[in-house]
Amino acid sequence: MLIYILLISAGLFNTAQSQNNDWPVYRGKPDLSGKAAWQLPDNPKVIWSYNAGGRTKSSPVVSEGMIYFGTEKGSLIACDTQGKLQWKTDAGSSVDAPPMIYGSGIIYSSSDGALRSADKKTGRNHWTYKTENQIAGSANTWATGGKSGIVVGSYDFFLHCVNPQSGKLLWKIETQNYVNGAPAVGGNQIVFGGCDGFLRIIDPLTGKEKTPVEIGVYMASSPALSGSNAYFGDYEGNFYCVNISKGKMIWEKPAGDEGASINGVPAVGAGLAIIGSDDKYLYAFNISDGALKWKFRTNGGIKGSAVIAGDKVLFGSDDGYVYILSLRDGAKIWSFNCGGAVSSSPAVVKERFYILTEDGRLLAFGNK
Description:
By secondary structure, the chain is mainly β.
């Protein structure tokens, strides 16, 4: 029993970015809120660039001086903070979703429907769990009541929950269509949407589902949780706030006038929910009533997700640029041309951030 508790504690420690200089899970924390514990440099420079040799839809995670991400060639890659390759392992099919750190392991998935746990120092496989179709979204973790689990959605219409140590199934929830995004975890609840147009709220201990909230439109990505609310967009360009305790819609707003799809996860902080759209704009909404506070136009669709860091907002665009804006009014502070489309969500650590280009380059930014 003591060993089991210690393993859970190790997993919890590695999902709390504020305790060390890590970004161990997609969007920084299990609630997927995309809020960093550190301020961004005022005028960041490229420290180094690592070329993975293949395209990627992944986003990086960071743990104990190592950066991890996947590629479309089926590789899970581990680099150190100097941009040097430490190891690479072959999953056999595309690794599109961002990986996740859990204790001494790294959890990652592939398009053949496999969820794997590997040693984060060597890449050696610990266990493999198979779903019945591809996995496109990152896994996430929950811990409550002395127990824990790893949750991941699949195109087999299920959300799966497995034991972090063994990879054995704990429970699964059936939906009516693909589960494309990552589940969000917060307040002892798991929240996720999917192609069936429902926002679902699950008790992690029992795997029992509350009455789902019908949205009616395909949700390509994930919700972000803050307090009792979930914030998310849909494929027709609408943006929502739902109270997950009451299962009640608080507000719904269009993001722009074109009905362009929302594929990213909101960044939530300082009273704002910030989301990008395929209409090339980044939008900032007031979390209380959905009023539009500001918007910023790029020259490409915004498929990735922004991060709030101090008084700044960081994000990438299909136009090949990475941007830093003022959180207060959306004014541009800084931008950099990466030379290729950026749909990655950045990983922000102390004095640095890491982001991927779609052509497979991992870029490290900071003060030289």
